[in-house]
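Input/output pair, single chain:
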Amino acid sequence: MKTPPNPLSGRWPRARQRGSLLLSAMLVATAVGVGLVGYLNLSRNALKLSQRTYYVNCAANLAEAGLEEAVYCYRLMDTGTSIATAWSGWTLSLSNASLTLPSFSCGPSAVGVVKVYVTGFDGTLSLPSVVAQATITPLDGSPPITKAYKVAMKKRGAYNAAIITSNALTLGSGTTVDSFNSNPTGVAGATRLAYPGNGAGAKGNLVAMAGSITLGSSTMVNGNVLLGATVTAPDQSQVNGSIIPNYVGVYPSPIFPSWNGWSGHYFVWSIPAVLPRTGDNAAADGRYYYYSLDKLEATTITAGKNVTIVALSVGSGLTLGTDASCIVWCGDITTTGNTGFTNPNWAGALQFYSLDNSLTLGHAGDTNACFYAPVATLTLNGGGATRTFTGSIIAKNVNAAAQWKFHYDESLNNVSTQVGTGWSMTKWYDLQGTAELATLSALTGGFLF
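Output:
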């Protein structure tokens, strides 16, 4: 007898097949899900990385904008704008200035804040500095990004040419103008070369801002001649460099060293034969200051000492020892004889500032010095076979007799003097690492970081 067929016997294999397919689909879906999650995480991390890279670049740009805000204020002072006006809107404290710029939108999901801190904004420091800090805070809760830059500022020296006049410049026949360089490395504190240094150069520039310029026959200028808009140019054959028209320069009056009885400041009825005097103390800046109504003549500055003298007038006989320096504030200057001033050092070691109307260098021999006399007519008529002047002259008028040899010391342009013609950036720092950044809070009274 035959057993009848079971109608369910063929369904179990098909069910098992469907279960296997379902399991495979679930595994595939799981794998795809895991892959999608990984891809989404990778994409999200890539987005975060790209966003933070963008914020880092944005912070760098904002920090630079902060530096520009401060440097612009220095530029305003260059043009004669008063300190109070140039730094209007800043918070001022002693010689420091601080400013927080309005918030910046760094895309739809971040806010940038820029703080700027300046030391020596008023020119009271020889080497002021500007620090700008930009902080970008993402709105997604991720850590903020901070970038800080620092620039060192320096006042350019006023002695940036061999001779500078605001009215008339006259050089006699057979005169030569060129340049020496006592510090070709440009490193502050470097041992200076004795003149002529590495030899004569072609940076003996002349500046005539107004009036006229007259070059005698056979006179040769080894440098450029810079002329105000109304000054007629000399013959190009007498100028080895370029003749540059429409020159505009600013040469302000120097700041007189006031006496308030501070340590290192002394009043003397007559100027001693040797300075500094035994027992006197230097001021905080390392200089000895002497004020007198006497005439400065036969005085020697001791080797290695730095002295500032305020005198009624100046004659012949000032002598500087090796590595000494002397800054003289005075009225009239008149020298005669074989030796006017003895300065075995570079020209910047001996500087004269005068607001008198007429000055005369009538001595023979060499002169290594700088003269800043913005209202004076300076006459150079000394005799002798050699009429050599090394340094720089700034005056209203300059009249030089024949056969003078003028040598400009190129290193004067890189040295801060009692009077400056403008500010420039000398160094740029990208502040990185906790060691550099940690000091900013203390230095800025907690304003930065």
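The first strand starts at residue 91 and ends at 93. The chain has a mean pLDDT of 84.
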